[in-house]
Amino acid sequence: MKTGTARQNHSTLQSLPTRDQIVSVSSEIQTEHGGSGSVEVCRLCGGTSIWWQSADAQAYFQCRTCGLVQMGAAHLPDQQAEKACYDLHQNDAEDLGYRKFLSRLSDPLLAALVKQYGCGPWPQLQALDFGCGPGPALARMLSESGLTTLAYDPIYAPQAELLTHTYDVITCTEVVEHFHHPKHSFTQLARLMKPQARLAIMTQWLDESVNFSRWHYRRDPTHVCFYQRETFIWLAQRFHWRWQNPAHNVVIFHAAET
Fold first, then answer.
1. How does pLDDT run across 145-184, given as a tens digit for each residue?
2. Mode of pairing for the β-strands spanning 127-130 and 149-152
3. What distance in Å separates the CA atoms of residue 246 and residue 69, rounded to the nearest whole number?
4. Per the count of CB atoms within 10 A, which of 31, 42, 86, 214 is most buried?
5. Burial 124-137 (b: 16+ CB within 10 A, else e)
6. Could you give the CA distance from residue 83 to residue 77 in angstroms, rounded to a whole number?
7. Considering the entire predicted model, what is its pTM?
């Protein structure tokens, strides 16, 4: 799988709360830390997030407003632990199996561009792969298809200058589940989007068919946010985006004209 490394860029987003601050704020409103009856502040919408269940000694909370399931603030991994895990991932841009995996997002995205702009290449469009990881395979695939795509990652490709521009297309594959501060991260992504831009996200969705405690996706210690259909609906409403679900575990947001 692609390393989801688009954690918050601390050089461009000021005053992000620290892990200790999150724990402090959450603890102020908890009735029983990490157990039934506990609550945290939702790190996406700011609503009330109720203790949902615990697994492998980690507590998870579900937001009443946006549906986001988040790992308890006290259990968030530090960046050193995250990077150690990411370094184990194999994201070879030449790996045909990995390319097929990424095509779940790239195929419907490119189809949408063809529908709007005609067949590529599209030299008039600018694209950014946000959270590209150590091997920018998706950026290469999109560029090969006629959409020149730059690659940014706060650990592996920390080119902060790329975050001073706006883009027609932004991709996040296996990234958003790593956001410690999803409110700040999605606000940053929204600021990077031009009018009518597309934001294409691939992450495994949480639904009623998932056995959460045994779910392999949860067992990745760097996965700290889990999104449901209602969470994407909330995001679309919050940022005034249209959205579609063109493939399994893929959502494409489309910004308004202005």
1. 999 999 999 999 999 999 999 999 999 999 999 999 999 9
2. parallel
3. 23
4. 42
5. ebbbbbbbbbbbbb
6. 10
7. 0.86
